[in-house]
Amino acid sequence: MLYSKLFGKTQKEVKKYESKNQELLVKAGFIDQVAAGIYTLLPLGKRVLTKIENIIREEMNNIGAQEIEMPLLHPKILWEKTGRWQTVDILFKTKSEHHQEYALAPTHEEIITPLVKKFIRSYKDLPLALYHITAKFRDEPRPKSGILRGREFGMKDLYSFHKDKEDLHHFYQKVIQAYLKIFNRCGLKEIKITEASGGTFTKKFSHEFNVLTPAGEVDLIFCPSCSFAQNKEIATKKPGELCPKCHTQLKKEKAIEVGNIFDLDDRFSQSFDLRFVDKNGEERYPIMGCYGIGTTRLIGAIVEIYHDEKGIIWPKTVAPFQLHLIGLNLEDKRVKNRCYKAYQRLQEKKISVLFDDRDDVSAGEKLTDADLIGIPVRLIISKKTADQIEIKNRAQTISKLIDLNQLINELTN
Ligand code: ATP
Ligand code: MG
Prior knowledge:
Layout (H helix, E strand, L loop, with lengths): L19 H8 L3 E5 L2 E4 L1 H20 L3 E2 L5 E3 H6 L2 H4 L4 E4 L5 E4 L4 H9 L10 E10 L14 E11 L2 H21 L5 E7 L7 E8 L5 E5 L6 E3 L19 E15 L1 H5 L4 E2 L5 E2 L2 E8 H11 L1 E2 L2 E2 L10 E5 L5 H16 L4 E4 L6 H11 L3 E5 L7 E5 L5 E4 L1 H9 L1
Parallel strand pairs: 3-7, 19-20, 19-21
Antiparallel strand pairs: 1-2, 4-6, 5-6, 7-8, 8-16, 9-10, 10-13, 11-12, 11-13, 13-16, 14-15, 17-18, 21-22, 22-23
Helix pairs in contact: 1-8, 2-6, 2-8
The chain binds adenosine-5'-triphosphate and magnesium ion (MG).
Adenosine-5'-triphosphate (ATP) binds next to strand 8, strand 13, strand 16 and helix 8.
């Protein structure tokens, strides 16, 4: 991609935002705020989201889940069936010209349960796991912290159906492992899992996946040396007390909730009278689980963790491009030629590269922009680099000279 053609450039000055991720994502040209809690993802932001979604897709498919896509406009009658038309306070309700009322999807139990009812009959059809990755709408009272809390946002939600509780618990553990892999692959190595009550959406237990950062809204009580963690709202332990598992002193820190999984039991199977015939020929309600990951929130969480005073530092796996190629001294025909040749070779080798080809911008400005955008590897071609390329990691200060072929070999092996 030529930077001169990229839609959504860096901005020198942005207004003061409450959160660092919002400031950096707006300034670097990843997102645009439409209104409180409503965002457009610009090409750079969309590329990051797609990377995250594909990691999630791979890990969901690996545990046998199948991808579908459910609608966002939900007939009122379905939400009345579960009693949630009246009880969910963040539900966006809308009326059509034809006197029909709808909810804008905040979650999808009201669609998936009647959908599955159309297709399953017997225990042989179970277990079943379906997921989708789409927008959600929630009428959040105070959307702040940028894309960490939107009124419209991206989510992956997975729903599973089981013949009994034991089978649900078996799958639930598999999802926990898949979630840890997903967050790990997105660069979030240290995830604190807390057990909580189900909140608005269910009375059964749930587990939250949290990333420690001062930018978070959640207060976590956790053990710095083992996996013990509690959400402060329900905590039985206080900071300074000893960990019940390993006797280390507990700490309290802020965290962002990036995922949440729930045991729904037969709450929704009952509402929609979804039944199956078991081995003994008896009719029963399937036990359900639901499992969410905030895909757009993840973008914000990653930026909160990976940035410095100059800008974002994307983990390789979710970076919008593999390389940021900067051409300096482009008024020199030979240098310009070398830049375009390198750009072409990299593209031929399917290495994604953002090429700063602008010839009306100073070297300093290009370098500042590269640091702000945060692509993990920066290349410079200039008069000084002669036949070689200067290469530097965004997270490091030392650079070295490398040959283009050598670079391509390293990246393709
Ligand atoms: P929170 O406690 O942060 O309000 P929640 O518990 O209501 O979130 P869930 O219903 O568990 O959210 O949704 C699954 C995931 O979707 C959350 O773990 C979070 O990552 C993401 N998410 C929820 N609400 C928002 C929002 N308003 N904006 C962005 N992401 C969100
Ligand atoms: Mg939650």
